[in-house]
Amino acid sequence: RQYGTRYLAAMPTNLYGPGDNYDLNNSHVLPALIRKFHLAKLAGEGNRASILDDEEKHGKLPEPYRSVVLKACEKGQIPAVVVWGTGKPKREFMYSEDMADACVHLMNLDDKQYKPLLGASRNDGLPPVVNVGVGDDLTIKQLAEMIQEVVGNNGQIVFDETKPDGTMRKLMDIERLKKMGSKAQTSLKNGIETVYTAYKNA
Predict the structure, then answer these.
(1) Cys-Cys with 80: which of 16, 35, 73, 156 at CB 3.0–4.6 Å?
(2) Over 70: is that where the pLDDT of 44 sits?
(3) Helix, strand, coil: what percent of the chain each, to 5?
(4) Band of pLDDT at residue 173, cut at 50, 70 and 90
């Protein structure tokens, strides 16, 4: 208000993309699962050198998980990938470049489209925020199975139901964004395939 700047906040859903954080101590669910399925695959191949190389690139594995992976590797076995909770909560995921495209789209709106989005110009009481997402979600179980397929890991998935599920659903309403002509172009599976390729080539 002080400088008459017309701010608009773009509120993103869960984002993923190349260059994500794969440190299992603090990564989000999608990159964490990519890394876990990849490491389990390497263990099944008995490829200790690649597991150690992965640690150099993406951070040391926490114990006791590290010992489990290396012991399985010695036997050429695929360790089970453990997922927190029941796998029933649903989440929405958006490819990072689709988020960037949506932001550019919002910045390029003409005044006729842009002004009604701003709080000072509106009378509906809503803040100058636009949800940015894909408008679709899937269960954590479905996500894990999709990542497993992309990685090419045929091991076991175990859901640790002693761990919390968190909020059961967080799907965004993106009708305002769609009405402005912006829509995500990257399917979740294609996005995961791109990210996994980047992960391996890091």
Answers:
(1) 156
(2) yes
(3) 45, 15, 40
(4) very high
